[in-house]
Write a structure and sequence with these properties.
With 342 residues, the protein is mainly beta. Helices cover 11% and strands 35% of the residues. The protein contains three helices and 19 strands. The longest helix is centred in the first third of the chain and has 21 residues. The chain starts with a helix and ends with a helix.
Length: 342
């Protein structure tokens, strides 16, 4: 009787092992099938690398999930320095913002017709001490980002700036003191007034960018408070929402990513029905991907970086670090591939 029971248990275990060996996530939603044409034809990932931080590299994708290096993994524009962020203006031109370092006083902006040839457009030096209710701001400018707001006909440029130095006892004091500032401009040559704080709530935020979907504005942020039992959302990607470009923004939603993730990037899927949110597990360890059918969530995390091809639902070239992702046309994709080669 006992032998019979053991055999039954062994048989059941073998069945369970068989099921678990075959079990895996379904493919991410948002892809086109058959003869269906994608609404979003291709994607550009402008990024830095682990070994060459702050310089400009390109990777491309046709499905928003699988990415390939361009230019044999070499820089595509030698003059650029910064955390690359690109947006398309109302003139059809592309603009990229950067700076030579967080302690540099100026934000540098270049312009391009084709994402291949860039020329200097302007430099902007914010008077950080003039920001209302932020007179103790340190001369630090982190990760400037651009967004063109069609309803207002203006660009908004955001970045993060701290107001406290770190100490040996509390290095996190510096990061927790980061606040997101912004300035408006019609042409990215002249800028309106002093920088202002984007959020009226008092919380550390970095890597913030804005998108308008429907009649709402969404601020995608990294919560820069250190994670604890009493602040479980620390160092995660979250979203705040507003009816207006400049707010007031809601308190951020629950975390989209695990802890210790930063540099979010958001793209629509090829069929334009799904959102793909990428974020980096720092320092340069891996990328994560969360997926939703609207920016209010809920979000789920896709499988990646398992090193099993039948499990990984997305893939990146080795050593890529954060930057930005944008949709491009198949014609632009072909031109980039022709120029730089995959």
């Amino acid at each position: 009787m006992r032998t019979h029971t053991i055999k039954q248990l062994l048989f059941l275990a073998l069945i369970l092992v068989g099921f678990s060996a075959k079990a895996q996530q379904p493919n991410p939603p948002g892809q086109v099938t058959g003869n269906e044409k994608p609404k979003n034809e291709a994607y550009l990932f402008a990024h830095m690398t682990h070994n060459d931080y702050g310089r400009l590299y390109y990777s491309v994708s046709l499905d928003g999930l699988h990415w390939e290096n361009l230019n044999n993994g070499k820089r595509v524009f030698e003059e650029y320095k910064g955390h690359p962020d690109i947006c398309k203006g109302p003139d059809g031109k592309y603009y990229i913002a950067g700076n030579t370092g967080d302690d540099a006083k100026a934000i540098n902006i270049w312009v391009s017709d084709d994402l291949i040839t860039w020329k200097k457009h302007s430099d902007y030096t914010p008077d950080l001490k003039s920001t209302p209710d932020y007179s103790n701001a340190l001369q630090r400018i982190g990760a400037p980002k651009l967004y063109y707001d069609t309803p207002s006909g203006k660009f908004i440029m955001t970045w993060h700036t701290p107001h406290l130095e770190g100490t040996k006892e509390d290095g996190e004091r510096y990061w927790a003191s980061q606040r997101t500032l912004y300035v408006l401009s019609k042409d990215l040559k002249t800028f309106e007034g002093p920088p202002n704080r984007l959020f009226d709530w008092d919380m550390g935020t970095i890597d913030v960018f804005i998108r308008k979907v429907g009649d709402s504005y969404y601020a995608i942020i990294k919560d820069e408070t250190y994670p604890t039992l009493y602040w479980t959302t620390g160092k995660t990607i979250r979203i705040a929402k507003s009816k207006n470009l400049l707010g007031p923004y809601s308190l951020p939603q629950q975390s989209i990513s695990p802890n210790f993730r930063e540099a979010p990037m958001l793209i629509p899927s090829p069929d334009d029905k799904i959102w793909y949110m990428y974020y980096e597990q720092y320092p340069g360890v891996s990328y994560g991907l969360s997926i939703a059918d609207n920016l209010n969530g809920p979000w789920f995390q896709a499988s990646g970086y398992t090193f099993f091809s039948d499990w990984d639902k997305y893939s990146f070239p080795e050593k890529v670090r954060h930057g930005c992702m944008i949709t491009i046309s198949k014609k632009e994709y072909d031109s980039l591939v022709k120029k730089f080669g995959k």
